[in-house]
Prior knowledge:
The protein is mainly β. Helix content is about 5%, strand content about 40%.
Amino acid sequence: MAITSRDQLIAALANSRHVLFDKASISNAVAGRFYSLWRATGQPGQGAIPAATAVCDRTLLGAFNLQPFASPATNYLAWVDVATSLATATLEIHDRLCHQGGLVGNLATLQTTNLPLTLAGVSAERIGAEDFSQLQWWLEWYADTGSTAVTATVTVVCDDDSTQTVAVPLVATSRASGLYQVLPPPGKNGIKAVNGVQLSATTGTAGSFGVTCTRYRAGFFTVVANKAEMYDWAALGLPEIAPDACLSLIQLCSATTTGTSKGVARFVAG
Length: 270
């Protein structure tokens, strides 16, 4: 059942389920870049570095500890209270759909370890639009690679089933928890799979990275350090949350660390 009126929403908020988050800071960040808080310690716990291709769900360590309302109820994210240690910070809640690891920074040949990464096993409810335009694909760093800046050529399968390549510039010494977005090629709506990654040269250090696919659910920000900000259903867009969603935080960094992030997310059902 869907929430279709303000009265229903008010009643649902009175019976909301709360999920707390309290994430430690990640160092060696760069302002203006995205960082995954999947590996940040705190609450929820530190997510594992993936090896083989895997579909993610709410039972994974690292996911929000959400106990969804039972079917046929529709689950929604309706409220967030958040505070960060940075004067300004932008946070996003994503549904982490699938991921893999095992890629390295000291190979200049095509890497297909634990690839392709596809959406097999991910429900249509979590994927969203049929053209895959609501999905975001990332190269996610788990251990620092070397000091040589290179370009990653990512082989992707697009919404029209064509195979294309996307060039992703990588900075020197890419740090753990850093994210590089793999955007759809020109003229394509979305990406449905990643088949391989090839670096233009070795970075000099193996490190460790992988491919991750997420779906954005909501975003919010703080403007004063250690002061709570409140975001209601209207500001968040009242996104539907799949019962098996693997919710986690991504941050657009504004400093040389991600700072600490803590708060509570309130979920309701219709």
